[in-house]
Amino acid sequence: MRNSFLKQNKEILGLNRRNQEYVRPFNPPSSKAIADNKIYTKRLLKKELIQTPEVYKLIRTKKQLEFLDWESLPKSFVIKPNQGTGGNGIMVFYGKKKGKWEWIRPNGTTMTKRDILLHIENILEGRFSMGAKNDIAIIEERIKTDPLLKQYSYRGVPDIRIICFNLVPVMAMLRLPTKRSNGTANLHSGAICTGIDIETGITTYSMHMKPNSIFSDTYELIDSTIDLKENKQLSGVQIPEWSNLLEIALKCQKVSKLGYIGVDIALDAEKGPVVFEINARPGLGIQVANQAGLRWRLEKIKDVKIKGIKHGIRVAKNLFGGEVEESIEAISGRKVLNITEKIFVYDKSADISRLERYKDTKRQLVKAYMDTGVTTSRIDSKLANRIGYINAHKEFDTLNIPKRFNSFKEAQEYIDRYEKEVYKSQDIKRLAKIVEDGEIKVRPVFDIPIKISDKIKITEFISTETTDILCPIVIGRADLTGYLIDTTNTF
Amino acid sequence: MLETSNLTQWIINQGISQIVLEIMISMCIVATVVSIARYIFGNKTYGIYAPIVLAIAYSYTGLRYGLAITLMVILTSLLSYSVLKKIRMHYITRIATNYIILSIVLVFFFILINNFSLGLDNMSNIPPLAFISIAALSDFFIKQYIQKSLKTSVMTLLGTIVVAIVGWFVITRDIISSFVLNNLWIVPLLAVFNVLLGMFKGLRVKDYFRFRLTAKEENEK
């Protein structure tokens, strides 16, 4: 428990650190004031040609409300408080009942003109706003959800939250309205949050707030939607226009001058990406949806000089991509390895029992090639010499085994003959017959500890002398059990 | 009579009563308890004022009596608000009506206690301001209920009560209050402690449970 706490403390961003290290120093009060005010935000983003929902009416006073021209409103619209927080006070109307002053809500119920007037009055009185000051009610366009995301949500509008810092998109999630959340994409009301791989825009882990938890904000990981007619698997969904969305989020950051920002974007079926709002204090639940900590990501890019939006996206994709692989690992129980991976090879003198505890153990970082065409892994003899197997090679040379054989049978005979002598050797584990440069050879086999994909394991290596080798280490089938090989990242 | 240090004696000689001094010290201690609860444990309260007033009120009413009144205040507020919300009326008038109903209910509650004791002591020795302080909780409770949700408000209420109980426990220990009263240098030390706590960036206990990466933990196992 204590270890886990300390480990996660290094990775997870908590509220204390978010406020002290990111919100306060990087978000100036003037920018925060813009983010907290939807009207200012819309104006600012419009200048940069970033799309926001179209405003139909702004109601500042009860007098204006009295004279509201209801006829001029389209059938579907949204009412929002200008300075609302956490999605409070937002009301969506899908359509109007024919011949009646009644509007239909996402859950099928209707609201009369009188009810809506009362709701707007509440907004004007500041019931849903920060600091409970008087507020402005915004009547704006209802977003028509992109058909792909529509399949995963219950009625309301799903949105994508992208957290950016220092002009780099750091983490993203998709919020899907559910029946429980009453069609809103608000996590606290019961919406589903799905992590998104920054590199590919593919969804990874998903979570929602436990419905009957005593504590109001306990999250639970889930695999599929929860209350649709036909529930769907949530991971592996490709978010449309992903690079464009990242670009829009960074543009919002640039124009708002918020160093640490959360940008909420919805995908409209006709207009494409539309920015809902920008957030100067984005919540931290996004870490659970991505099963990744924000702290180390933010620390990694704190001192990086980003030249522009494209550069920021490149940095993000290189540094924070790969969540999809982790997700595959969670589903299949297998880790994903690139076809070439950098691995550590430990020195022969290293104390195996202490490898994990001591970072200063003598080791070499080398490139390894994953080759399912060979059974046993192979190591270049020169590398083996460097890590302390020079005497083992000398010992092997004293056996006077011919350099090449005409058949495997002949090679096996030699192996059998020298079996006892090899058994006495401290370093040579056994002899193996291999085909090298088109010739059948007998070579020594060593047990060498390596660290691959964060795991230390003792691996059997055949020492080879071939010059026709891509990497000094080749990992064979025997050591690739439990891994999936990603062939997209080559040399 | 408690023996007092020179500084304490000097302050008392300046015309400040010992009770005032004790309340001031209690305020500092409970305020620090609230800071610790918020920034180390992540416990939400109705600001800092409510738990301080509640803890001091409990120290006058006694914990059992205090909690019983708190329960009455919350239940009455909840009931009266649920009824009043159906009537189209202005916010302040609704809260005012709530207070009137609350005072009537509390009077009946005190009569009940007086006649049937209900396991609680007689209330004649309790200063009336303590009751009002607890009744003020209604305002905080209803405000959050309207702005957020009943669940959020109840959770914050519980957080406030827990912190108030801890505060009550600390300030009602004679050993602690007499020690601080005789060692007033602790008070500025509490301020220094709060400044340091204000710079604390570590994970709150609640954050750890909320944001811990469970899938990652399992994979590592």
Walk me through the structure.
- The complex is a heterodimer of chains A (491) and B (221).
- Chain A is an alpha+beta fold and 491 residues long.
- Chain A has helices at 2-11, 15-26, 29-35, 38-47, 62-66, 113-124, 147-150, 242-256, 286-290, 294-301, 309-320, 323-332, 381-397, 408-417, 419-424, and strands spanning 55-59, 77-81, 91-93, 95-96, 102-104, 110-112, 137-140, 159-165, 168-176, 192-196, 203-209, 219-222, 260-268, 272-279, 335-338, 340-346, 363-370, 377-380, 430-436, 439-452, 455-464, 473-475, 483-486.
- In chain A, the strands form 5 sheets. Chain A has a 7-stranded antiparallel sheet.
- In chain A, a hairpin with a 3-residue loop joins strand 13 and strand 14.
- Chain B has 221 residues and is an all-alpha fold.
- Chain B has 12 helices and no strands.
- The mean pLDDT of chain B is 86.
- Classes of the chains: A alpha+beta (491), B mainly alpha (221).
- Chains A and B meet through helix 1, helix 2 and helix 12 of A and helix 7, helix 8, helix 11 and helix 12 of B.
